[in-house]
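I am writing to request your help with a piece of structural work I have in hand. Here, with my thanks, is the record as I have it:
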Amino acid sequence: MADNAASPPDGAKAVPPPHPEDAWPEPRRDAQPDRAVDVRYDLRASHEDRDRIVDLLRVSAGDGRLSIDELDERVGAALTARTYGELEALVADLPATPGAAAGVPARKPKEMVRMDCGSGTMKRDGRWAVPQRMEVKVRSGVVTLDFTQAQLTWPTLQIDAEVHSGALLLLTKPGIVVDADEVSVQSGGTKVEAPWGHDVPATLRIDVSGRVRSGTITARPPRPPRRSFLDWLRRRPRPRQPWELPAGHQPYGLPPGQL
């Protein structure tokens, strides 16, 4: 009986056909890593899905992964998206967990943090995870909350403050909006500085309430380094704040995206 398979040319080795299990599988469209949206691209998205993507975009902007213009554009597209596929396209170039380095699990943010400061000082700075609510009591001390490099995991932060002969200082940056209108002042004061104006899209809104008795609550950007005596003699200008610099310039020698 004749063999139907073609014979190899003289001197050539016969190559066996590939085993079905050795062949590359067909790529599956649903074989995607877990992200903030469902991977079934053609299904309709809900309001909760859109809000989840907006929160992810705001956190990514706070990490310096998106510019203000990119954030504004993508948030607008997310709010009008109809399907999971349209939402997925907006975060395809962003990590599923912003604020964490690759391979390092992100710290789960707390919903409530309480701080009680007597006559000393307490500070939160660097890449600390901002909770959803904070209760801060200050008695003759100073509490500093530095948001310039913080991980913004919630779109809003509620601070309930009790300040007696002390100070609560909030260090902010463009995109962080502070409202202290609900604070009752008996002796002392509150002050909110936002020299960059109100046209910057908000990445975090901080609502402060409570009471001040012989103390202060202040929200402002970090102060630039002072000029040295030699710089003063040479009449060198003081370092400018981030919002005073042309686009693309970074103050104080910090890496891009950090203020």
In short: Residues 1-5, 18-39, 99-106, 247-259 have pLDDT under 50 and may be disordered. Strands lie at 112-117, 121-124, 133-139, 142-146, 156-164, 167-171, 176-192, 204-220. The radius of gyration is 27 Å.
